[in-house]
């Protein structure tokens, strides 16, 4: 596609529910990243996929967070048993080389 | 661990020049990048320094000095549309854990351009 696409753009969920966030990277980009950005804060690295290599999960804050990337393209970030502190904007990015193209993010609100 | 520090806010007037600094406590990284993020929008890539020195892209320039653990973004001829948050980021090597191309972002600088 022309850019990185994320869905949904907004998600409101009740505490304790599971949520799935989707990312469609730019076609041909081999690397895909997930970040979390709380209000007025910087970007917190969550997880990174590069081709067929094992993903770098070093940024996932707890075992409630997981992500997968199917067929080297679309990725899904899953948050189980959501907590209020999970409320943030979740950004996906893809890249070929040193710079990353970001999606517009999913704003998650846990009530 | 790795950390990058930036001023939290900078204010400047239209037409002026502003410099946003980024100091870091890390080693072995491959390069320093800069991203712009308008309120509610996606971060967009501005500039990359793979080597020490100055890189110029139109009104924006970026500088890196590894010996000083320091870089900056220079914005010239400021326009109102430049009001945004600016983030520096370093790209990490294997010994950071995990694969390369992992980006660690700075704390971000909110630039307010006034008429």
Mean pLDDT of chain B: 87
Structural class of chain B: mainly beta
In this structure, how is the largest beta sheet of chain B organized?
6 strands, mixed
How helical, in percent, are the residues of chain A? under 10%
Assembly level: heterodimer
Question: C-alpha Rg of chain A, in Å?
Answer: 13 Å
Your description of this structure?
The complex is a heterodimer of chains A (111) and B (115). By secondary structure, chain A is mostly beta strands. In chain A, 0% of the residues lie in helices and 49% in strands. Chain A has strands at 5-7, 10-13, 19-24, 31-37, 43-50, 65-69, 75-79, 88-95, 100-102, 106-110. In chain A, the strands form 2 sheets. In chain A, strands 2, 4, 5, 8, 9 and 10 form a 6-stranded mixed beta sheet that branches. In chain A, a hairpin with a 4-residue loop joins strand 8 (88-95) and strand 9. The radius of gyration of chain A is 13 Å and the shape is globular. Chain B has strands at residues 3-5, 9-13, 18-25, 31-37, 44-49, 53-57, 60-65, 70-75, 84-91, 103-105, 109-114. The radius of gyration of chain B is 14 Å and the shape is globular. The A-B interface holds A 4, 31, 33, 35, 41-45, 48, 50, 53, 56-58, 91, 93, 95, 98-105 and B 30-31, 33, 41-45, 48, 50, 87, 89, 91, 97-108.
């Amino acid at each position: 596609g022309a850019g990185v696409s994320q869905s949904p753009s907004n998600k409101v969920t009740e505490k304790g529910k599971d949520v799935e966030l989707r990312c469609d990277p730019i076609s041909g980009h081999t690397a895909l990243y997930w970040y979390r950005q709380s209000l007025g804060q910087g970007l917190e690295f969550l997880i990174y996929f590069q081709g067929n290599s094992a993903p770098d999960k070093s940024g996932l804050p707890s075992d409630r967070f997981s992500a997968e990337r199917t067929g080297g393209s679309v990725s899904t970030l899953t948050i189980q048993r959501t907590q209020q502190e999970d409320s943030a904007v979740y950004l996906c990015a893809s890249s070929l080389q040193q710079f990353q193209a970001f999606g517009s993010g999913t704003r998650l609100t846990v009530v | 661990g790795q950390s990058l520090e930036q001023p939290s806010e900078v204010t400047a007037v239209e037409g002026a020049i502003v410099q946003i600094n980024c100091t870091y406590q890390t080693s072995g990284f491959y390069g320093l990048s800069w991203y712009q993020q308008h309120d509610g929008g996606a971060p967009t890539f501005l500039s990359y320094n793979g080597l020490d020195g100055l890189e110029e892209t139109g009104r924006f320039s970026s500088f890196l000095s590894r010996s000083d653990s320091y870089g900056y973004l220079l914005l010239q001829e400021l326009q109102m549309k430049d009001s945004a948050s600016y983030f520096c980021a370093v790209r990490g090597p294997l010994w950071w854990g995990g694969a390369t191309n992992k980006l660690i972002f700075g704390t971000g600088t909110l630039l307010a351009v006034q008429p």
